């Protein structure tokens, strides 16, 4: 299987597993957990689970962590811990749909970064695909009704967008010899410890509960959503996301990441009985259409860049 095809599979896996986070988090918050406590538990448990695999992949190559320490620190502080906290702060001041739309505008920041930093100006098909995908996202998030908006909430939402952009940019451009599992683990250790310290200092509200969680009328222990958030929506999601960005590049990987919202709607339907409307289904189709247009454009650009090499070989 070609690396690009592998990257596509990893991107879908990452989007699907990230898409479970809203369902697991909703059950946990309804059980009495604060957002800060839920995020901190998610990251620290995931870091613990990844410790042994990370140590195995780094055996004899610990210098890779030292060589990439600045990028790993930025990944842990901004892409792992910061992005989630920024989003939860945005939700405190905005409707959830508006907060999500602002966060996923980070995809546009990735396009801008790739253009300014690497000179890869977005072509017409990518711009069209981006517009179609964002329009579909508006429908999926059901932003057609009355929405609560505030300037401070918008500021938090844009910070979340920056955190999302940092995730894709650093995932794609950090030293490829550093294993994705090791990068995810190191970033989670830094992000988790930072959140824990912030919680102990009172900067981030932390409170947990041991009440049962509810999934579509089925009661289960509180550790089930914790396990889901940590193992599925963190361990698998972050590791697969890093692998996908390295194979596909930050721009295409970020657009494929929009599929997370579609998976989130599906999981909310299956596990929380939140049935999507017809308008949301139309929006989902538009998001997929936009992703396909960007993918087609990226493939065309990739073929064009290889043509001189093929001509020289002939």
Please give a handful of descriptors for the protein shown.
single chain, 314 residues, mainly alpha, two-stranded antiparallel ribbon, 14 helices
Overview of the molecule:
There is one protein chain. The chain has 314 residues and is mainly α. It is built from 14 helices and 2 strands. The chain has helices spanning 3-18, 21-30, 35-58, 63-67, 69-93, 96-104, 106-118, 124-140, 151-173, 180-200, 223-248, 250-256, 259-272, 278-313; strands at 213-215, 218-220. Strands 1-2 form a two-stranded antiparallel ribbon. The chain is globular, with a radius of gyration of 19 Å. The chain starts with a helix and ends with a helix.
Q: How are the secondary structure elements laid out?
A:
Layout: H1 3-18, H2 21-30, H3 35-58, H4 63-67, H5 69-93, H6 96-104, H7 106-118, H8 124-140, H9 151-173, H10 180-200, E1 213-215, E2 218-220, H11 223-248, H12 250-256, H13 259-272, H14 278-313
Antiparallel strand pairs: 1-2
């Amino acid at each position: 299987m070609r690396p690009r095809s592998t990257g596509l599979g990893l991107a879908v896996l990452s989007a699907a597993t990230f898409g479970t986070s809203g369902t697991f988090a909703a059950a946990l918050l309804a059980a009495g957990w604060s957002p800060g406590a839920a995020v901190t538990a998610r990251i620290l448990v995931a870091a613990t689970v990844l410790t042994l695999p990370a140590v195995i992949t780094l055996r004899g190559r610990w210098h890779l962590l030292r060589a990439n320490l600045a990028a790993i620190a930025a990944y842990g502080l901004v892409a792992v811990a910061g992005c989630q906290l920024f989003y939860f702060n945005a939700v405190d001041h905005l409707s959830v749909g508006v907060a999500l739309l602002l966060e996923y505008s980070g995809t546009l920041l990735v396009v801008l970064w790739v253009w300014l930093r690497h000179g890869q100006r977005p072509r017409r098909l990518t711009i069209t695909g981006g517009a179609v995908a964002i329009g579909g996202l508006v429908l999926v998030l059901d932003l057609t009704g009355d929405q609560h908006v505030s300037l401070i909430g918008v500021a938090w939402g844009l910070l979340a967008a920056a955190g999302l952009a940092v995730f894709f940019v650093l995932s794609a451009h950090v030293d490829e010899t550093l294993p994705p599992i090791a990068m995810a683990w190191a970033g989670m250790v830094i992000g988790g410890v930072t959140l824990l310290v912030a919680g102990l200092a009172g900067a981030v509200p932390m409170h947990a509960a041991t009440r049962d969680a509810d999934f579509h009328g089925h009661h289960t222990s509180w550790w089930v959503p914790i396990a889901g958030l940590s193992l599925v929506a963190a361990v698998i999601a972050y590791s697969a996301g890093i692998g996908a960005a390295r194979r596909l590049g930050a721009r295409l990987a970020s657009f494929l990441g929009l599929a997370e919202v579609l998976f989130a709607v599906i999981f909310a339907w299956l596990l929380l009985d939140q049935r999507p409307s017809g308008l949301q289904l139309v929006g989902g189709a538009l998001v997929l259409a936009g992703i396909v247009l960007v993918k087609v454009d990226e493939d065309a650009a990739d073929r064009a860049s290889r043509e001189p090499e093929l001509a020289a070989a002939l």
